[in-house]
Amino acid sequence: MTRKTKTSPAKATAPKAARTTSPRTKARTVAPTVAALPATPLINGAFDMTGPVSAEKIEAYLLTLNEKAKAALDKGAKLGEEFTELAKGNLEAAAESTKVAAKAAETFAQDGAALAKQGYEEATAAFKRYSTVKTPAELMQLNSELAKTSLDATMAQVSKANEALAKFATDFFQPLSGRYTVAVEKLKATAL
């Protein structure tokens, strides 16, 4: 048996508003209020919602929004171009530093080969001189003389190597430090 409910014409229901609670609980309706709308202008006063909204206000708002978007895109494009230029300069500096390193490696290899050849020649000459020694006093004098010569030659080579390494480090890092300076200046200009 089915029960029919009677509805009176005086109790006509209005359309339902959005539910604010779960469907299992009794639904409550919330009516929007004018006070819930923002009372502040959106973009620097271009669209003030406190007064009546007109086509002129909407047009002014959209024009301002369009100008700001265009300015932001132009600034982004300019930053992209500057970044590309900076990256290109950095690659050129790295290539220059690589050339310096290759030239220094070649120079060090040549110097090492020359030093090895010189050491071989000096050792051969020393053995020839040792073969002519006849007394222990001559042996001691020859040892002393060769040790002094060897020490002087070693100190000269160490000094020469230190100077070459210092020059290499200066020449290698010069292009890179120049690019670092340029990058810092660009970042400062961009931040401002």
What does this structure look like?
- This protein has two helices and no strands.
- It is an all-alpha fold.
- The protein has one domain.
- Helix 1 packs antiparallel against helix 2.
- The longest helix is centred in the middle third of the chain and has 77 residues.
Entry summary:
The chain is mainly α and 192 residues long. It is 69% helix and 0% strand.
Characteristic terms for this protein:
mainly alpha; 192 residues
Structural class: mainly alpha
Number of domains: 1
Number of strands: 0
Main beta-sheet annotation? none
Q: Roughly what fraction of the amino acids lie in strands?
A: under 5%
Q: Which radius of gyration do the C-alpha atoms yield?
A: 44 Å
Identify the overall geometry. Answer: rod-shaped
Please report the distance between the alpha carbons of the first and last residues: 82 Å
How much helicity do the residues have?
55-70%
Average pLDDT, to the nearest integer?
79
Individual helix count? 2
Order of helices and strands: HH
The unreliable regions are 34-41
